[in-house]
Amino acid sequence: MNTTKTKRSTKQTTIVEKETLLDIRHLKTYYPVKGGFLRRTMGQVKAVDDISFEIKKGETLGLVGESGCGKSTTGRTILRLLKPTDGKILFDGKDITTISGTELRHARQNFQMIFQDPYASLNPSQSVGDIISEPIRNYKKVGKKELKNEVLDLLSRVGLPREAYDKYGHEFSGGQRQRIGIARALALKPKLIVADEPVSALDVSVQSQVLNLLKELQAEFDLTYLFIAHDLSVVKHMSDRIGVMYLGNMVEVATNESLYAGPLHPYTQALISAIPEMDPKKRKDRIVLKGYVPSPQNPPSGCAFHTRCPLAKEECYQVKPTLKEVTPGHRVACILY
Ligand code: SF4
């Protein structure tokens, strides 16, 4: 059994032994690019290009990076909504990389997703009661009354009144709809939840309510989160550890505290320098990156960040750096370390 020492983000920083729930090894997800009259495969988009990381039970790993960096593809591949091109996905000690049919259906009870857009993710023709009870009906044999009670209990856990049961998605605000989505994700009591930008479509005023709810539910249901977001302030609030992605690669992984206090990768340094800081004493000079993220269909040679890196050297054009542990638990992929 794989155990290591991990810091939890309860601000008292308790050291506890945790088992690994999710172990991702050299994961690659490439999309074929089709073209021409016969729709032949003309190339590949390397959306996720050889990333490895693990998540401990009860932990939240935040995944950050600009749009198109591969964070959502990573989340969807882990949930087996996308087929991995290569690598391994070990969930609770079991290799789920290539399982299919009944085996995959059975495994899926343990990992669920919270989607970005609470407006699009709820079926408009189903009542809230139907939406939340659907996964339970699909996986368990439960009597009508017991099923309704389970759904009412879930509604109450996510802060919605029991009257919501007979209503429809359009009768709720964005924040309330996301609560319905969370209740649906919780219905099968999963071990892992992949939350893909769960608050980015919501008004700022309700974002913190939903984030706090996710934290409360994590403690209550003993959940492990892969929390995907482009907003570093949101990720900081939620995560124990954070992985930074750039163009399909993992460029830095560290504890929340270590990453924000001392980012090592030039890309992470630029992202963190862009976070608005209210305290003038803590304000740092903003590092503005030039240019755009290159296409993952034709990524640059060597370090994928070299086209925008203010510290790039000759060697960076040829050598692809791999993640290296620089201080305990803090890993970075850059030739400068
Ligand atoms: Fe910049 Fe080179 Fe480090 Fe890449 S390897 S982040 S280009 S210094």
From TrEMBL:
Single GO MF descriptor: ATP binding
Transmembrane segments: none
Tagged with keyword Ribosomal protein: no
Residue ranges occupied by any ABC transporter domain in the UniProt entry: 33-272
Record's keyword terms, sorted: ATP-binding, Nucleotide-binding, Transport
CDD domains: ABC_NikE_OppD_transporters (cd03257)
Family indicated by similarity: Belongs to the ABC transporter superfamily.
UniProt cross-references to NCBIfam families, sorted A to Z: oligo_HPY, PRK11308.1
The protein's name: Dipeptide ABC transporter ATP-binding protein
Source organism of the structure: Jeotgalibacillus marinus
Source lineage: Bacteria, Bacillati, Bacillota, Bacilli, Bacillales
